[in-house]
Amino acid sequence: VAAVLHDSMLTIRDLQLAGPALEGRGSGQIALVEGASSDFSYDFTRADLAQLRAATGRDMQGLVSTTGRVTGPGSALHAVGDATITRLDAFDVSALTTTVHYDATIPTSDTARASAKLEGHGEFLTVLGQALQEVTGTTTYDGDRIAFDLGVTKAEGARGRLAGTVVLHSGQPEASILDLTVALGSATWRL
Prior knowledge:
The chain is mostly beta strands and 191 residues long. The protein is 2% helix and 72% strand. It is globular, with a radius of gyration of 19 Å.
């Protein structure tokens, strides 16, 4: 690490990580006082999800690589970047390769107000036991709501679409479906 702390601003000229869980580098400024803005660029070439279990509290498998930038004040840190996940196995989903562009705003003092938009593409997936050739689409998260619009192709070529909005119930392992559209071929169902 090559860094300087001056006037509550940490300037990192070169941060390099190399270990069993993470490998990558970063540089930029991190504001340590409210009102100042951060500007930090990163390139993680490997994050091993299994090795990060102690930090995430989740039993996941897969390798993540990501390049991006975090900017803004602590009241609204803004992260934008691209990620690739290989050999994912988590939450009843397995995927050979997934690519994602992310754009997230995270208030450090109130993470419940976080928002994010993910645009992604996955290939050779198994979701809840169903084999899928491809999934492409957009998911947004805003506070307690998740909206999704996903195009799905089954291994045998059948195409479909899932779109909807879900509200998460804070502090409880449950959610409510506000709206849902399921399209298979030319048939469409709405809830």
